[in-house]
Amino acid sequence: MTKSSQKVTRVYGFPIWIGFAVLLLAAGCNSAPAPDTRAADEAAVRKADADWVKAAQTKKVDDWVAFYTEDAVALPPNEKTAVGKENIRKPVGDMLGLPGLSISWQPTKVEVAKSGDLAYLYGTYQMTATGADGKPMSDNGKMVEIWKKQADGNWKCIVDTWSSDLPATPPASK
To answer: Most buried pick, 40, 88, 98, 171, via CB within 10 A?
Structure first.
């Protein structure tokens, strides 16, 4: 290597290494872990779920389905899977249309992912209504909800399922 080429390498090589070091330092500074918001997110999911119970008391389908994302999935008992808010309207409307309906639920556990964008809860529900025979009927069971944090920071349900703890009713004989 000639003296002039060594001089060029020293002059131009040094700034490249400095630039590379600054880039690595900047990348390292930006990789700080995100703050853990799970406690606040859990409280937000619990509040959203409690608001949903209150909305159910109105017996208005729109108030109920407002808690779902557009692409939510509902897995109601003894019915087919309903995909999408519009398809969920029918099973929810059928349930809310039961005469004398009273429904509520309580979460037993709420768990938020460390990423802070998903949560699930499970718990129990209680329901009473007037049966087709005019007699009061009651049901109690369990439920699972999966929630997703939306771009605006609010939580919406993306999967909803519930099932009875009561024994299955045998089919009517012909």
So the answer is: 88
| 8 Å CB contact between 13 and 5 | no
CA distance 64 to 118: 20
Q: Residue 6 belongs to what domain range? A: 1-29
Region 163-170: mean pLDDT is 90
Does 9 share its domain with 93? no
Contact 75, 81 (CB under 8 A): yes
pTM as predicted: 0.79
Task: For residue 100, tell me if it sits in a domain.
Answer: yes
Clarify whether residues 1 and 74 are in a common domain.
Answer: no
- 170 domain-assigned: no
110 in the same domain as 53: yes
**Distance between CA atoms of 145 and 155, rounded to whole angstroms?**
12
Of 147, 126, 167, 144, the residue nearest 75 (C-alpha): 144
Q: What is the pLDDT of residues 48-61, one digit of tens each?
A: 999 999 999 999 99
